[in-house]
Amino acid sequence: MSKPVITRFAPSPTGYLHIGGARTALFNWVYAQRMGGKMLLRIEDTDRERSTQPAVDALLDGLSWLGLDWEGDPISQFGRAARHAEIAHQLVEAGHAYKCYSSPEELSRMREEARAAGKPPRYDGRWRDRDPSEAPEGIDPVIRIKTPLSTEIVVEDHVQGKVVFNTENLDDFVILRSDGSPTYMLAVVVDDHDMQVSHIIRGDDHLTNAARQIVIYQALGWEVPEMAHIPLIHGPDGAKLSKRHGALGVDAYRKMGYLPAAMRNYLARLGWAHGDDEVFTTEQMIEWFDLDALNKGAARFDFAKLENINGLYIREAEPEALYEIMLTTAREVERTGDHEGLGANRETVLAALPDLQPRAKTVLQLIDLAQFIYATRPLEIDVKAAALLTDDTRAMLADILGELEAVTEWSVTAIDARMRAFAEARELKLGKVAQPLRAALTGRTVSPGIFEVMVLIGREETIARLSDQVKKS
Ligand code: GLU
Predict the structure, then answer these.
(1) Which of 29-33, 251-255, 298-302 has the lowest mean pLDDT?
(2) From the CB of residue 152, how many other CB atoms can be counted at a distance below 10 Å?
(3) Residue 174 has pLDDT above 90, yes or no
(4) Catalytic one among 38, 119, 146, 243?
(5) How many angstroms separate the first and last alpha carbons of the chain?
């Protein structure tokens, strides 16, 4: 029987879940789902300054919003320091690691000499074979691993293929500091082993670390997990992803009105492909996902593509669910007026949504489009709409007011019939009538069908909004 698949997402808390981390988490999650396994969450919180509770909460919130759930409680790496130290001492006893008493001055001299000799600045292994009885007094040693000499460490990677490192370039690196705290290299190996991680999926900035970690695995006689080092995300111009390109926390995307399912879809496409499929459900992603199909080249972040995909998800979303997201978003971005307006007009907003959905790419745009429902009179008219309200069109609106007052049954069909007859009698195209109406009734040039708008806001409000504009002439 093959081993159960256990993946892990191991972020260091930075105060938010950035887009690259979100993608790493997604791949770990999808792969675990695909294989009927589980994803664990380990918080690499050994940097005590940065690892505040709010920073950890921001990570958990980001993952939860994206719908990426992990098994069990998050594991604190810092909380496992005693275990890391235990293993370091075990390695010393087994002769795979040793105590090094070199002082900081000695180490910097060593580096300078190496540099002067044109060699890479590496620790020269001077305590590697020294007898412990030579240890100077009063100095707390560090513990260094004995990296095998003149050999090769091979990283068999699902994405990078076979990557060979010469151990001459790895040196006897520190695994336990003189204060007894573990280095990152040791902590990761011990944690992954104890958590029974079967697959390590992370950014390819960790590829060299992988070689060092394998040195530790081998010293301990532990099985090395499978590895997949995924290329980092670049901006559309090929440069490293920066804020300008969209290297924001996922919370920023939530506030801009992106849907978690759309984010999952888009993030999956950053470095993974299934044929030419651009849009797929999370279920399909799980069904199709394969580590060996991850791309070796850097993925390019494309905001416009993300926006398009989000638009598709908004179009397909259930109005009820979307309405709730609109409410939460309005509150979160402190658009109080919108939050109240949406809250007080649930039924009307729900009725309008199927018409609004195809017109919006983000939830914020959707809220903007819904504003006509709860806008207060006299309406604010935007510049484009104002240009449609001339003396002539205002005079026409005055006539339309009379027509509408005569409509007995306030329905789209009845209003439509009346307005068509009105346009025909004046030999006007329907658009010539509809556009000024839209400007007066919504303050904008984009809205659902104008007769639908009239029915949504009701007869009284329609007449009142039109009268406001007619009076201005
Ligand atoms: N904590 C590391 C990071 O945030 C990840 C370590 C790992 O995945 O092994 O980059």
Answers:
(1) 298-302
(2) 11
(3) yes
(4) 243
(5) 83
Task: State yes or no: is 243 an active-site residue.
Answer: yes
pTM assigned to the model: 0.91
For residue 257, give Cα distances in angstroms to 289, 300, 311: 27, 21, 10
Class in CATH terms, 80-230: alpha beta
Please tell me the distance from the alpha carbon of residue 141 to that of residue 139, in angstroms, as a whole number.
6
Q: State whether the Cα torsion 186-188-190-193 is positive or negative.
A: negative
Tell me the CA–centroid distance for residue 52 and ligand 1, in Å. Answer: 17
Mutate to test the pocket of ligand 1, among 206, 212, 227, 233 (most ligand atoms within 8 A of CB): 206
Instruction: Say which CATH architecture domain 250-363 belongs to.
Output: 3-Layer(aba) Sandwich (3.40)
Out of 44, 185, 208, 226, mutate this one to test ligand 1's pocket (max ligand atoms within 8 Å of CB): namely: 44
Q: Tell me the per-residue pLDDT of 255-308, one tens digit each, with 9 for 90 and over.
A: 999 999 999 999 999 999 999 999 999 999 999 999 999 999 888 999 899 999
Coil, helix or strand at residue 229: strand
Residue 24 CA neighbour count, 13 Å, CB half: 28
Distance of CA 364 to the CA centre of its chain: 18
- Residue 52 tokens, joined: 């505040």
Q: What is the largest CA-CA distance in the chain?
A: 110
CATH 1.10.10.10 applies to domain 383-470 = no
pLDDT tens, residue by residue, 318-373:
999 999 999 999 999 999 999 999 999 999 999 999 999 999 999 999 999 999 99
